[in-house]
Amino acid sequence: MRSFLPPETVEMIEKYGSDLPGDLAFDQEMTILFSDMRGFTELAEKYEPREVYATINASLAMQTRIIMRHGGSINKFLGDGLLACFSGEKRGEQALLCVLELMDELQKKEKTGDKLPCRVGFGMHDGHVLFGLLGDEMRKEFTVIGDVPNTAARLCGIAQPFQGLMTEACMRIIPDDLAKKHCRYLNSVYFKGKRDGMDVFYVDTES
């Protein structure tokens, strides 16, 4: 269970045991990380399903190990990507160091010349979320709800292969020395449905 849920959620489950309320939900500050494979549709058309499955599975397994090593938890797998959560006072630092290692490992894998490329982009946003239990007695799952995961997903959607994008909200909780070394301003982005533009930064793996 601790592999898939933030520590605070595990504590809540352990507190209630089998008497978990059907509408269990609580507020939390989190850094949300989305990852998504680029060119998946092309891969699915070009290669056999089992080959594509093996590539995706290997990628997600590698990402999971690195995310958990940096203190994150996997909320859910999303086809060829995932949604991960970081909580606690060091969540910004943990998420940044995690993305740096993820991009490094993926770029190393790209250089091995594997038959199927595995090019992944990342998006991060930080802020207030509602972490709750959704579903009914037939099936339930914990998920994060709010603008934060939505924005992280949108950033992931515009990230280039092997690129990690983050918001100013993430920058504010990353230690200054790490931010100066690894974070660079990209531009201001306007997402459909949002009133204001958003300053976006990218993770610099060369520094």
Please describe what this structure looks like.
The chain has a single domain, classed as Alpha-Beta Plaits, CATH 3.30.70. α3 (49-69) packs antiparallel against α4 (91-111). The protein starts with 6 loop residues before the first helix and ends with a strand. By secondary structure, it is an alpha+beta fold. The mean pLDDT is 87. The protein contains seven helices and eight strands; from the N terminus they run αβααββαββαβααββ. Strands 1, 2, 3, 4, 5, 6, 7 and 8 form an eight-stranded mixed sheet that branches.
The shape, in one word, is globular
CATH domain topology: Alpha-Beta Plaits
Summarize the main sheet. 8 strands, mixed
Going by CATH, the architecture would be 2-Layer Sandwich
**Low-pLDDT sequence parts:** none
CATH class: Alpha Beta
Assembly state (oligomeric): single chain
Q: CATH superfamily, please?
A: Nucleotide cyclase, GGDEF domain
Number of domains: 1
Please count the helical segments: 7
Q: Please indicate the percent range of residues in DSSP E strands (runs of 2 or more).
A: 25-35%
Radius of gyration: 17 Å
Helix fraction by DSSP (H/I, runs of at least 4): 40-55%
The assigned structural class equals alpha+beta
The secondary-structure element order is HEHHEEHEEHEHHEE
Q: What is the averaged pLDDT score?
A: 87
Based on DSSP secondary structure assignment, what is the total number of beta strands? 8
Give the termini separation: 36 Å
